[in-house]
Every structure is written in C-alpha cells, then in structure tokens.
Amino acid sequence: MARRDSTEGPERRCIVTGVSGETAPMIRFVLGPGDVVVPDLEEKLPGRGAWISADRDVFARAAKRNPFPRAFRTAARPPDDLAEMVTELLHRRCMNLLGLAKSAGQVVAGYEKVRDASERGPFGAMIVAEDGGDTAQSRARKMAWDAPLVTHFGRDELSLALGRENVVHAAVAPGRLAGKFVRDAERHRLMMGLPDGRVMEKRIVDD
C-alpha cells in the first residue's frame, strides 16, 4: 500500500459508500436540535460528525436508505431536500467568498485586467463564466498558470458577486480565500453533477 504524504488532509469514511478519502470533496454533518441532520460546511460545529461524498448520485442513495441513524446511533432525521440544501449553501458560500476576496483586494475581473495580472505571477484560482464561450475558456486556460480553473458559474452570478457588469474572466490571488473558494466550488460542481471542465456553449463573448 502506498504511503500517504504527510501534507495531505485527514481521511474520513463516507457513510453511504464506505469509501475512505480526504475530506476536501466531502460534506460533514452533525446533529442539531431534535436530532435533525445539519450540514457543517465549515467543519467547525461541535459533536460527532458524519461524512458523505459530495456527489449527486451518492446523495440520492442517502435519500433512499438514510444512513444517518446508524452513523449517529440515534434516530437522526435528515431534511427531505438535503441535497438541494447543501448545493444551495455551497453556491452561496462561493459567491460570498468571491465578495470577501474582492473586498480584500484579492480579485481582478475583466479579460485585460486578468491578462495583465497573469503576467506578474500565478493565481490562486482562475474563473471563466460558463456562458462565456470557447474563446473565453481558451484564454482563461492560457492565463491560469497552474491555478485551478472554475468554469461552472454564469456571468450574471459572477457579476452580482463581484459588483460589476458582464464578468466573464476573474482571478483570485493565492491565499486562504482562494483555497476555500476552490474547495467549495469543486464540491458545488460535484453536487450539481457537472463534469470537470465541461465544454461551454459555442459563442464568443469578451468582457
């Protein structure tokens, strides 16, 4: 068996699949009042935790078999719309993190500004709107260096989060906010059931 790198994150076991792995692509749950299952996306709530892989199909299986009572050893009750709740919470967190990064001066938006910033060094995250077109995606890949590329948010929601019109390209500086955004964006993508780096609509739009 291969030895784990000491820099990797902790491992947890998915209570649906039984597969163990790092926590980055997983969702932690705790029990709230009345033994209601509550998602703990920040992983800071006290009490015993249960983990489920951030995967649309895995959550569908969880809805059918309810693995929480066994995991918590009590009559735990998940909300009927647990998958939708988690997906919406992750989306909200991603948009909030972009807003926080903008307020901290850690975001550049607009093709020319992102292009100029890319010449000065790498990013923590590169973002291109899903409805930006193939040319926008190609440009983003060239400017990204080795930064993770987030492609599944639309320009309207990016524009709202960043407080400017028609955002197709944006980039977040390396650091804690970029790391949290990348993780939540990846978990959101998985909960949406979207493929990695999916092909976008074929139309050309410049910001």
Comma- or semicolon-separated keywords:
39% helix, four-stranded mixed beta sheet, 9 strands, alpha+beta, 2 domains, 7 helices, Hypothetical Cytosolic Protein, Chain: A, three-stranded antiparallel beta sheet, 207 residues, 60s Ribosomal Protein L30, Chain: A, elongated
**What count of helical segments does DSSP give?**
7
Calculate Rg over CA atoms: 19 Å
Secondary structural class = alpha+beta
Uncertain regions: pLDDT < 50 for 5+ in a row?
Answer: 1-8, 198-207
Mean pLDDT over all positions: 90
The helix-strand sequence is: EEEEEHHHEHEHEHEH
CATH architecture of the largest domain: 2-Layer Sandwich
Under CATH, the topology of the largest domain can be stated as 60s Ribosomal Protein L30, Chain: A
The named CATH superfamily of the largest domain:
Ribosomal protein L30/S12
What is the structure about, briefly put?
The protein has 207 residues and is an alpha+beta fold.
How would you describe the overall organization of this protein?
- The chain has 207 residues and is α+β, with helices and mostly antiparallel strands.
- The chain has 2 domains: 11-79, Hypothetical Cytosolic Protein, Chain: A; 86-192, 2-Layer Sandwich (60s Ribosomal Protein L30, Chain: A), CATH 3.30.1330.
- Helix content is 39%, strand content 15%.
- Helix 5 links the parallel strand 7 (125-128) and strand 8 (149-150).
- The longest helix has 22 residues, at 82-103.
- The radius of gyration is 19 Å and the shape is elongated.
